[in-house]
Each structure stands twice: as structure tokens, then as C-alpha cells.
Amino acid sequence: QVQLVESGGGLVQTGGSLRLSCAASERTFSRYTMGWFRQAPGKEREFVAAISWRGGSTYYAESVKGRFTISRDIAENIVYLQMNNLKPEDTAVYYCNRVAGTAPAYEYWGQGTQVTVSS
């Protein structure tokens, strides 16, 4: 079972920034499209952003376009999510996973990292 470890969350004010990191325990994950999902209290987990395995293609949920940027360091096998101009509605637990389209492609999840944006 591959371990996915997310980090970088925290408490910020509206308009602030955070950078999330996701490390996979196996190098094979560096060859997959990877992405970020989030789950707010009482809501379904939703797609946020994804990046192709070479990093040449990215796509985002409409709600984060222009504010979030996904990137990856293939050598280090880490996927990042730079989040700028954060809003209270971005408050959620953020997870990374393999992605197929906008759906998760690996059955196991990490513990996630909490992002809280205060108004």
C-alpha cells in the first residue's frame, strides 16, 4: 500500500496564502497524473486540481482557477499546491491522490492536511 502524506495546512486569514505538499512513499507515483481533493465539513470530497506526470498539463476546479497552482517535483516525488487569495469557503481537509479525469484513481487516502481560512 502506497502511503500518501500531506502537509502544509494551517490557519490563515482571508486573502492569505499556503503551500501544501504531498509525498508518496513509492516512486511509481511519479509516473501518474496526481491531484488534490478537499472535503469540507458536511460535504462530499471534491476535486481541486491535477497535474500530468511530466507536469506539462494542469487543470483546476472552477472555484480555484486563478488562485491555486499545482506543481510537482518529479525527482523528489512531491506534488505541491500553492494557494493564494484564500477564502473562507476554501476551508477543508486537503488530500492528494492519483487522478483519472477529476476522480481519484487510488483507493487509499492519506490523513490529509487541514486548511482553515478565517474571515
Q: Could you name the ranges where pLDDT drops below 50 across 5 or more consecutive residues? A: none
Return Rg in Å: 13 Å
Helix- and strand-based class? mainly beta
Q: Report the strand count.
A: 11
User: Helices and strands, in N-to-C order?
Assistant: EEEEEEEEEEE
Biggest sheet layout = 7 strands, mixed
Q: Please state the average pLDDT score.
A: 95
End-to-end gap: 39 Å
Strand content: over 45%
Large-scale geometry: globular
Percent helix, as a range, is under 10%
Helix count, DSSP H or I runs of 4 or more residues: 0
Describe the 3D structure:
The protein is 0% helix and 50% strand. The mean pLDDT is 95. The chain starts with a strand and ends with a strand. By secondary structure, the protein is mainly β. The strands form 2 sheets. Strands 2, 4, 5, 6, 9, 10 and 11 form a 7-stranded mixed β-sheet that branches. A hairpin with a 2-residue loop joins strand 9 (92-100) and strand 10 (103-104).
How is the secondary structure organized here?
Blueprint: E1 4-7, E2 10-13, E3 18-24, E4 34-39, E5 46-51, E6 58-60, E7 68-73, E8 78-83, E9 92-100, E10 103-104, E11 113-118
Parallel strand pairs: 2-11
Antiparallel strand pairs: 1-3, 3-8, 4-5, 4-9, 5-6, 7-8, 9-10, 9-11
What key attributes describe this structure?
119 residues; mainly beta; globular
In short:
By secondary structure, the protein is mainly β. It has strands at 4-7, 10-13, 18-24, 34-39, 46-51, 58-60, 68-73, 78-83, 92-100, 103-104, 113-118. The chain contains no helices and eleven strands.
